[in-house]
Amino acid sequence: DAGVTQSPTHLIKTRGQQVTLRCSPKSGHDTVSWYQQALGQGPQFIFQYYEEEERQRGNFPDRFSGHQFPNYSSELNVNALLLGDSALYLCASSLGGDSYEQYFGPGTRLTVT
Amino acid sequence: AQKVTQAQTEISVVEKEDVTLDCVYETRDTTYYLFWYKQPPSGELVFLIRRNSFDEQNEISGRYSWNFQKSTSSFNFTITASQVVDSAVYFCALRSLSGGSYIPTFGRGTSLIVHP
Question: What percentage of chain B exceeds 70 in pLDDT?
Answer without folding.
Answer: 97
